[in-house]
Specification:
By secondary structure, this protein is an alpha/beta fold. It has two domains: 131 residues, Four Helix Bundle (Hemerythrin (Met), subunit A), CATH 1.20.120; 206 residues, Translation initiation factor eif-2b, domain 2 (Rossmann fold). The chain has eleven helices and 16 strands. α1 packs antiparallel against α2, α2 runs antiparallel to α3 and α2 runs parallel beside α4. It is globular, with a radius of gyration of 20 Å.
């Protein structure tokens, strides 16, 4: 199963805000609709929003435009618009940057030719992401032993990528190898991507899964019930500092205390080597109603009380056991080995 589909030059996606109660597919017919789908987390996951955005650009530009100058301006404006909607996940900017490069190289060609080049590049990004997921799964599964009890946070599976995922791809691979693993899933407040999405995914794949509240991870670790932790990433700095869903940092601190291996799983496109450390990673702050209202309906915070809602936190590299990339497993010293492995 995949979270988006591109068929006969039409773009479709699962509305992830409807899961797990309903599996609703929608068509993205415009740039405005694509922006809204990403912004409102109907389409989410760092690698997936990059792929989706690339297709959105094509959908936006496939309508007739008579003049080249106007067409190129329309392309640049659309790219800038989409890039702004999720600032922490670098894969979005990376995918749009790839489109910008091919458009620049082919700017002297006809509008029709450039449109087809954009579509070809979007499809290439899509297919490449599937391959990257497979590579990460292979490297990561080697770190899992039979009977391991694994904790994961947020969602890093086929709902977040074009393939089987990042962290969850590793779990799916281990499951196929009959390693008899069991998975604990943090609910991942405030939007419950763990309990709503990851548990739904794992259940469909037949993986043994147990959902816990975010504040239950510590007691499980203290009881010796967690052997390893695998999570995804939205941006990784040159020194290995990693931005991921809010709550990841706390898990890393607990893992260090209880001497539990803590793994990040991410493709090369998630690395931002221009950033020296995680201190420079922009952290998206989302709508306060995500905390004020439970599932957008029941008010759980008194009116007038302030709310702080950062969507991500940054885990320092010193708390990370290894980063599993599509190019191999990267260990400390991260600055040296990331440069050596990723480039």
């Amino acid at each position: 199963m995949r979270a988006i589909k591109f068929k006969d030059k039409h773009l479709f996606y699962i509305d992830q805000t409807k899961l797990p109660s309903k599996e609703v597919w929608k068509e993205c017919k415009s740039l405005k609709a694509g922006y809204k789908a990403i912004k409102e987390l109907k389409v989410r996951g760092a690698p997936l929003i990059g792929v989706f955005a690339a297709y959105c650009i094509y959908i936006h530009l496939k309508r007739k435009t008579k003049y080249k100058k106007r067409f190129l301006k329309k392309f640049r404006k659309a790219s800038k618009r989409l890039k702004s909607c999720r600032p922490t996940a670098v894969n979005l900017a990376w995918a749009l940057g790839r489109l910008s490069k091919v458009v620049l190289i082919n700017k002297d060609k006809s509008i029709a030719e450039i449109k087809e080049i954009i579509l070809k590049e979007a499809k290439a990004i899509n297919q490449e992401d599937i391959m990257l997921c497979d590579n990460m799964a292979g490297y990561g599964a080697e770190l899992i032993k039979k009977g391991d009890r694994i904790l994961t946070h947020c969602n890093a599976g086929f709902l977040a990528t074009s393939g089987d995922g990042t962290a969850l791809a590793v779990i799916y691979k281990a499951h196929k190898l009959y390693k008899n693993i069991r998975v604990y899933v943090d609910e991942t407040r405030p939007l419950l991507q763990g309990s709503r999405l990851t548990a739904w995914e794992l259940g469909r794949r037949g993986v043994s899964v147990t959902v816990i509240c975010d504040n239950m991870a510590a007691i499980l670790m203290s009881q010796g019930k967690i052997d390893k932790i695998f999570v995804g990433a939205d941006r990784i700095a040159a020194n290995g500092d990693t931005a991921n869903k809010i709550g990841t940092y706390g898990l890393a601190i607990l893992a260090k205390y209880y001497k539990i291996p803590f793994y990040i799983v991410a493709p090369f496109s998630t690395f931002d080597l221009k950033l020296v450390s995680g201190k420079s990673i922009p952290i998206e702050e989302r709508n306060k109603d995500e905390i004020r209202k439970l599932v957008k309906k029941i008010e759980v915070v008194p009116k007038g009380v302030k709310v702080y809602n950062p969507a991500f936190d940054v885990t320092p590299s010193k708390l990370i056991t290894a980063i599993i990339s599509d190019k191999g497993v990267i260990k400390s010293p991260f600055k040296k080995n990331i440069k050596k492995t990723i480039g």
